[in-house]
Specification:
heterotrimer; A mainly alpha (358); B alpha+beta (390); C alpha/beta (156); B: 390 residues; alpha+beta; Cytochrome-c3 Hydrogenase, chain B; 2 domains; 3-stranded antiparallel β-sheet; C: Beta Polymerase, domain 2; two-stranded parallel sheet; 3 helices; 7 strands; transport (chain C); quinone binding (chain C); EC 7.1.1.- (chain C)
Amino acid sequence: MFSLENITDSSQKWLYATFNSTIALVLQCVIVMLLVISLFAVLGLVLVLMERKVAARMQIRLGPNRVGPKGMLQTAADTLKLMMKEGLTPDGADKFLFNLAPFVVMIAGMLIMAPIAFAKGFQIWDINIGVLYVSAVSSVSVIGILMAGWASNNKYSLLGAMRSGAQIVSYELSAGFSIVSIVVLAGSLQMSDIIASQQTGWWLFRGHIPAIIAFVIFIIAVTAETNRAPFDLAEAESELTAGFHTEYSGMKFALFFLAEYINIFIVCAIGATLFLGGWMPLHVGHWKGFNHVMDYIPSSLWFLGKTFFLIFLIMWFRWTFPRLRVDQLLSLEWKYLLPISMFNLLLITLIAIMGWHF
Amino acid sequence: MYRETKILNVDSKVSPIGGDLEGAVGADEGELVINVGPQHPATHGVLHLVITLQGETIQKVEPHLGYIHRSIEKMCESLSYRQFIYVTSRMDYLSAHINNHGCALCVEKGLQLEIPPRAQVIRVLMDELTRIASHELWWGAMAMDLGAFTPFFYAFRERETINDIMEETCGARLTMNYMVPGGVMYDIHPNFQKRVKDFIQLFNNKIDEYDDLVTNNIIFQNRTKGVGILSAADAISYGCTGPVARGSGVTCDIRKLYPYEVYDKVAFDEIIETAGDSYARYLVRIKELRQSVRIIEQLIDNIPDGDFQAKTKAVLKLPRGEFYSRIETARGEFGVYIVSEGGTTPYRIKFRSPGFSNLSALDHMSRGSKIGDLMAIMGTLDLVIPDIDR
Amino acid sequence: MTNGEIKQHIVTVRPNGVFDETGEWLQVQVDISEWKTFAQWLRNDALQMDFLFCLTGIDWSATATGKTLLTMVYHFTSTVFRHTLVVKVKLDRNNPEIETVSDIWRTAEFHEREVFDLFGVKFLHHPDLRRLVLTDDFEGYPLRKDFEDPINMIKL
């Protein structure tokens, strides 16, 4: 059976057998780095194309269909165009911060890749505080956005950045509470433990209604955290033209754009890991035959399938809903989502202590 | 046309919160002055608004007009009574046909022409189709201003059908130029009745779809309810007409008050909402779509036979005097005021455009609301910039 | 109210008003000095003319009789009685000045700016009298009959 685990294991064995342990570690780091960067590039291309195709589907049109078969190479062509473009820096901008900001956003995205388990045994770093690490590092990207808005010397950018700051900081709370509720159920912060705890069933199904509430809140909160519609106030183009990245052009703009899609992928991957069992196949009770068939589907496909389903969900929101107003956005979080998720956490704790979950 | 704006100090080396920009011309402590437009996604054209903000709250909105001013009134002074009608298509291009209609009515008033019944019915049918097309575009653009992209494509799907119908009969899709003093330029296409009937049958269900997608959406309702409130007294004082005034509870439908053509013979309701907020203005337009369909349904099978054009002289000369005609466009009351000295061209012509007066209420309506609300308010004002600048 | 009734009402306050009943609506010409008080009376008293739907100027300098004449034309409707009245005020074309009515009808603020812009009529006590559609440094008043622009104006 095809498995990524075999590849990683055999490559590690070979490296440590051929070189001494220090060089082997360095080589491993280099390989991982290259893999992450190429994953970034591929994800960017795929997700942008997917967004355009999904949008086209919902808007009764065809979407990109000229470059390559069925428009598959459209995003590659777009990337090429963006690379050719001049990266303008406005005169009044703080040049250092202005140029640094896209990289901060990008690096924050790259760092969160570390604890994500892409398949069985295919994980960069199974850190024992995995979930905590994810929620901590994901807040770094807001610094990049604030930096970009501030350094651009543009009022639209500044307004967008300030909105974004308020939004991400607030919605991190509910997202955190939803994550913590799964941590309570699984009893561990480590990604591999959380996945292993879902062997008999995903937390979304095992945790009764509170887990479903946590899942819904998680999806809402991460949509807001990634600045996606209907919470895209930071870039709200009908109000602030393009918000915090109004002044960016060329590849610097592309980095912001890429970071947005990478962030979507990451939050969806985390959602899939926490609520939908990561790479765990779908098992239903005592249906032996069914479970056996499910096991034959490679774990990497399970993971990607779940993640892309969540990504599709988030894209669906974007092309359906109008945007919220800034005060409504904050009152939604502080008046509704936060109290609900706090109470929900209590319920989940009760369920976990009493062992009421399946 | 170059316009120097002293308000946005783009050369400033100071960071946005620093002293320079914040203390820009006319701004008090802590106020931020930003330019919305002339190139801005939400102004749908070249409207330039200078808005003063306190945080996200709007203190003042000051429209700067003229980016698409062509002085159409002056132009018309050198055009004959047959020619000037078609220049008005370039004002409110979304209800170009109704503009032309208003001008034709004014010339006919001066000539005291009797319009054949067939021409009258065709004119009203075309007017209502134009109104539907215009409201469709408004609906899509309004939803887009509020951040929902998909409705725009749904709206254009139906609008396309209307454009095709127009194209078949008039030869043009947007600026139809179908009016002549005394009737319409040519007879309707043989397919016209069938295609219009197909369209309205399809369209009735589509309005329900619009309600599902936007009207009943909780986010949309939250964004528009209680936003940009305009009282009835203010609406009258600001000279607002059309759906804007009717959303505030003012009876102002010219089709009902001063019926022209066959509007006094068809049954339809004037939509009045009393809340005066953006949602009320939205509802007025959505309900008007149904009323327009109702008018078309009554007339489409009853187009009388006969001439489509009254006999007129080749060169029209209006008698000395002043003529004023009022007509209800998709945006409100459109007035044409012709002062004639008896020649072949108007001595003075004035177009009273609905958008101009509606825009003047923008500042009053948006004070104290958020930037996001400004888009909701502008969306429901349904501004067409060439109509305002002329 | 019919035109006759409106006329009777006006005659009681302005016995020297000049009436013209040939058109669709009753026209009355008032003296420039009486304009502001007359406007207030129109809005607030018996006639209730609350809706000023058209405000414009006419430059008569191209006609034989009106070399120095510029008229302001105000179209009023009452949303209470549904009657319409046209008021005209004659101005001196060389120095056109008239009291603003933007404090009575808010819509006049924009319309008066437009007339100022295109005809050069000065509205006294207007809150914000600036050019509206043309640039601030534009010379001349385009809707006046003697305006010439050799580049942008096409004459047929």
